[in-house]
Automatic annotation (TrEMBL):
Residues 11-131 form the Aspartate/homoserine dehydrogenase NAD-binding domain. It catalyses: L-homoserine + NADP(+) = L-aspartate 4-semialdehyde + NADPH + H(+). Pfam families: Homoserine_dh (PF00742), NAD_binding_3 (PF03447). GO terms for molecular function: homoserine dehydrogenase activity. NCBIfam families: PRK06349.1. Belongs to the homoserine dehydrogenase family. InterPro entries: Asp/hSer_DH_NAD-bd, HDH, HDH_cat, HDH_CS, NAD(P)-bd_dom_sf. The keyword Ribosomal protein does not apply. The keyword Oxidoreductase applies. Its EC number is 1.1.1.3. Keywords: Amino-acid biosynthesis, Methionine biosynthesis, NADP, Oxidoreductase, Threonine biosynthesis. This is Homoserine dehydrogenase. Residues 139-317 form the Homoserine dehydrogenase catalytic domain.
């Protein structure tokens, strides 16, 4: 039985610093629970001078050479917190091939190259865990892999990006402009080093790919998802949405359609009484519908150093436990690939669309009447004569129907806002 396991950190940024601090606080408890003392031995950094005082306080060494960690016989576990694909992927593969267990929070990497890495970990019978990659501090992947193992999930809808949820909350509640809200999220350490992935929905897409694998065994690629970020969310549309009883949220969704799944990330109107509408700031929530449990919500801080670090620590505990129990290191996700992607054309969604009008109110009324006669299910219509604006909610559109409708609406003026609508619109 191992009494001590030594850790090598790759990177010493916001989350890694949190890991060092949380481990210092929890080391004794983890040792009591697992029988293993977890100790940070070394950290790979670019600039050892900058981090020297911190490393000294916490009693570990700094290095600029990868092999000091991956080829160090003393080190049992490598925690990768550099992010992005290269060189993180090569570093992780090197560590695994050298028989180290690996823990990471790198959603970009798992979403795009997860399978390849999982195969290497399996061949080496070492642990490869990534609880922190989705939902920051929320226990999500482990419950999906265990508590839902006997259930059948039909849909997973989530607010899985803390930065954009923080921004939308501040834009709606404090009337902050987009740029100020983004700067605040960056200063709080929520955003990626390049926040493009946050605001354009890519970070959320990576997380939905991972959730899709745990919920359905789906093997989704980024190009399989319809992805829209929050750049074009207009203050005027948010106001209309709120007056109709909705909040605007960036929602990632993977849902079952027939024998397959479909996946998307987009700004969506969420009814104020839906649990996801109540999730504010950097908090994330994943709303799961399944045959056995019914509806459940996993909620918590989706970004930030200490919550994310705590998820990393949970993975360390799993490695310590399995090492002590001499258990095999089976892949983290036990769902087998069995959910093909369905053709989006078979999926009907509801949309909110607003148009800055060039036609008169009477002509607009006639135009909307015409849409209804053509079979469009217009469930909400408002013509704001003061601001020359038409707002519509149209239900049950395939992607082709939706594009055709946008073309028709363009004859009335400029399309200002396009948002998805969750559920059927009910004027009461
Ligand atoms: N940039 C990410 C977010 C960090 O804002 O959710 C956590 O994955």
């Amino acid at each position: 039985m191992k009494k001590e396991m030594k850790i090598g950190l790759l990177g010493l940024g916001v989350v890694a610093t949190g890991v060092v601090e949380r481990l210092a606080a929890q080391q004794k408890q983890i040792e009591e629970e697992t029988g293993v003392k977890l100790t940070i031995a070394k950290a790979l950094v670019l600039d050892p001078v900058e981090k020297a005082a911190f490393a000294n306080t916490h009693g570990f060494e700094l290095t600029t050479k990868l092999e000091d960690i991956t080829e160090n016989a003393e080190i049992d576990i490598v925690i990768e917190l550099i992010g992005r694909i290269s060189p993180a992927k090569e570093y992780i593969l090197t560590a695994l091939k050298n028989g180290k267990h690996v823990v990471t929070a790198n959603k970009d990497l798992i979403a795009q190259h997860g399978q390849e890495i999982i195969e290497v970990a399996k061949a080496q019978n070492v642990g490869f865990y990534y609880e922190a990659s989705v939902g920051g501090g929320i226990p999500l992947l482990r419950p999906l892999a265990t508590s839902y193992a006997a259930d059948s999930i039909t849909s997973v809808k989530g607010i899985v990006n803390g930065t954009t949820n923080y921004m939308l909350t501040k834009m709606m509640e404090d009337q902050l402009d987009y740029q100020t809200a983004l700067e605040q999220a960056q200063n709080l350490g929520f955003a990626e080093s390049d926040p493009t992935n946050d605001v354009d929905g890519i970070d959320a897409a990576y997380k939905m790919i991972i959730l899709g694998a745990f919920a359905f065994g789906a093997e989704l690629k980024v190009t399989d998802l319809a992805i829209q970020g929050i750049r074009n969310v207009q203050a005027a549309d948010v106001k209309v949405a709120q007056s109709l009883g909705y909040e605007v949220k960036l929602i990632g969704e993977v849902k079952q359609v027939g024998e397959g799944v479909t996946a998307s990330v987009s700004p969506v109107l969420v009814a104020k009484n839906h649990p996801l509408a109540m999730i504010k700031n950097e908090y994330n929530g994943v709303f799961i519908e399944s045959q056995g449990i019914g509806q459940s919500l996993l909620y918590g801080p989706g970004a930030g150093a200490l919550p994310t670090a705590t998820s990393v620590l949970a993975d360390l505990v799993e490695i310590a436990d399995r090492t002590q129990g001499k258990q095999d290191f089976a892949p983290f996700n036990r769902k087998v690939a069995n959910a093909p992607l369905v053709n989006r054309e078979n999926v009907k969604e509801n949309y909110f669309i607003s148009v800055s009008l060039v036609t008169s109110a009477i002509e607009t009324e006639e135009f909307v009447k015409g849409l209804v006669e053509q079979g469009y299910r217009v469930v909400y219509k408002a013509i704001d004569t003061k601001n020359n604006r038409l707002s519509l909610i149209v239900n049950h559109l395939t992607p082709t129907d939706y594009q055709t409708l946008l073309t028709k609406l363009a004859t009335q003026g400029m399309i200002q806002g396009q948002l998805g609508v969750m559920g059927d619109f009910n004027e009461n």
